[in-house]
From TrEMBL:
NAD(+) binds at T181, N212. Residues 174-405 form the Glutamate/phenylalanine/leucine/valine/L-tryptophan dehydrogenase C-terminal domain. GO terms for biological process: L-glutamate catabolic process. It holds the Pfam family ELFV_dehydrog_N. InterPro entries: Aminoacid_DH-like_N_sf, Glu/Leu/Phe/Val/Trp_DH, Glu/Leu/Phe/Val/Trp_DH_C, Glu/Leu/Phe/Val/Trp_DH_dimer, Glu/Leu/Phe/Val_DH_AS, Glu_DH, NAD(P)-bd_dom_sf, NAD_bind_Glu_DH. PROSITE patterns: GLFV_DEHYDROGENASE. This is Glutamate dehydrogenase. Belongs to the Glu/Leu/Phe/Val dehydrogenases family. The active site is at K97 (proton donor). SMART domains: ELFV_dehydrog (SM00839). Substrate binds at K61, K85, S341.
Length: 408
């Protein structure tokens, strides 16, 4: 998917073959094996990957995913998307992404800690504050980042806060990072609804995924007055036509581990939930959920891609043909996370802390600028929004590579 999207943009930009190849292929792909002792005494070997797509514009930046379906191809695609995302937002980074093929939901706290520390040890030669900086993604969180920071810093002999972002505030993380991605999604949905003439107090939303991103997107939209009617996770979906009390649902999930069983809403088939009429549909979980099968049946006005890669290329063509769905592409929609990660890294480099309101104001300014650039480019060049956003990222990267020239 990532390669197909890139090729389409490269064709439209008529990129020269040499620069096209330099932009398309990752600079480095690292795979490591991590033997870890499980609680029952057995030793299991896990595969971990890190793909550093480009180093031309700065260190590579991107999350670390723990999921049973992690593969090197998925990580490479996510790293390429990170690249265009960082360039579009004007961050001085290339894209990177990592993943370990594991199921954190079946692993104890201790097993996850040992796996994370072993992966970090294996990665020490390839990461650094100026080379590659990780952050949370699916299946990882600020505790994971704290273990990486500790393992790396112990090796260095001093605290290296800038080695990861999305770490706890008490370890020089930044205010606002935990909620940044979902909050950014909520902000962009609000801005786009406003542009379409839909007042947030009359708008409705449906959200797939209630992890870090889905939860904070729901809370942010609810705070704007948007009625959140449907929410799903791996186990199922819940629906309330009059609007779900998102804070109450958060309490239910914190107690039970799932949205399923929430008393103030009805159970619904998660696939059916995606097809319900709403103003904003927000996939905030895994890839390829909007596809050739369901794209023609969506009844939303805005498709806000909080997840990475939720829409397949064939679904893109169907949505373009329809022309009635405003797609906020992933590399714009979920950029709030990496933008605040960048703020965290800058604060770490400066040994200076910003206030929460400073972080969140700067976040909204950057997202607003990116949204305007994408809309302007799409209109000026007659491109769909995903193509326009990707084109801006690719041009930025190609420009930097061109200026740096080729080593003889
Ligand atoms: N965290 C971040 O800052 C950023 C994340 N993203 C992207 O956002 C997406 C979500 O990440 P994040 O919230 O961090 O991950 P989390 O691990 O915190 O949450 C993932 C959520 O998705 C749910 N889920 C997983 N598979 C499915 C499925 N097949 N159907 C419905 N729900 C499902 C999980 O359900 P359950 O709870 O039941 O397991 C969980 O609620 C990913 O695509 C990630 O790459 C993008 C930018 C930044
Ligand atoms: O915060 C970051 O550095 C990266 C977040 C991420 O993985 C993403 O945007 O997909």
């Amino acid at each position: 998917m990532a390669a197909a999207q890139f090729d389409r943009v490269a064709d439209a930009l008529e990129l020269d073959q040499s620069i096209r190849d330099r932009c398309k292929w990752p600079k480095r792909i690292v795979t490591v094996t991590c033997p870890v002792q499980l609680d029952d005494g057995r030793v299991e070997t896990f595969f971990g990957h890190r793909v550093q797509h480009h180093l031309s514009r700065g260190p590579t930046k991107g999350g670390l995913r723990y999921h049973p379906k992690v593969s090197i191809g998925e990580v490479a695609a996510l790293a390429m998307w990170m690249n265009w995302k960082c360039a579009l937002a004007g961050l001085p980074y290339g894209g990177g992404k990592g993943g370990i093929t594991c199921d954190p939901t079946t692993m104890s706290y201790g097993e996850q800690e040992r796996l994370t520390r072993r992966f970090t040890m294996e990665m020490i030669p390839f990461i650094g504050v100026e080379t590659d900086v990780m952050a949370p993604d699916m299946g990882t969180n600020e505790q994971t980042m704290a273990w990486i920071l500790d393992t790396y810093s112990t090796h260095a002999g001093y605290l290296v806060p800038g080695i990861v972002t999305g770490k706890p505030v008490g370890l020089q993380g930044t205010e606002g990072r935990t909620e940044a991605t979902g909050r950014g999604v909520g902000f962009l949905v609000y801005r786009v609804l406003d542009r379409l003439g839909i007042s947030s107090s009359h708008a409705s939303a449906v959200i797939q995924g209630f992890g870090n991103v889905g939860r904070h997107a729901a809370l942010t939209l609810a705070a704007y007055g948007v009625k959140v009617m449907g929410i799903s996770d791996v186990k199922g979906a819940v629906w309330n036509e009059s609007g779900i009390d998102v804070k109450a649902l958060c309490r239910h999930v914190d107690l039970t581990g799932s949205v399923v069983g929430y008393a103030e809403a009805e159970a619904m088939d998660p696939e059916e939930m995606l097809l319900q009429e709403c103003d904003a549909l927000i996939p905030a979980a895994v890839e390829r959920v909007i596809n050739g099968e369901n794209a023609g049946k969506l009844q939303c006005r805005v498709l806000a891609e909080a997840a990475n890669g939720p829409t397949t290329p064939d679904a893109d063509l169907i949505l373009e043909e329809r022309g009635d769905v405003f797609v906020i592409p992933d590399i714009l929609c979920n950029a709030g996370g990496v933008i605040v990660s960048y703020f965290e890294w800058v604060q770490n480099l400066q040994r200076f802390n910003w206030s929460r309101s400073e972080v969140l104001t700067k976040l909204e300014t950057k997202l607003q600028q990116s949204l305007e650039r994408v809309i302007y480019t799409a209109e000026k060049r007659g491109m769909p929004f995903r193509m326009a956003a990707t084109a801006l990222g690719v041009e930025e990267t190609a420009g930097a590579k061109g200026m740096r020239g080729l080593f003889p």
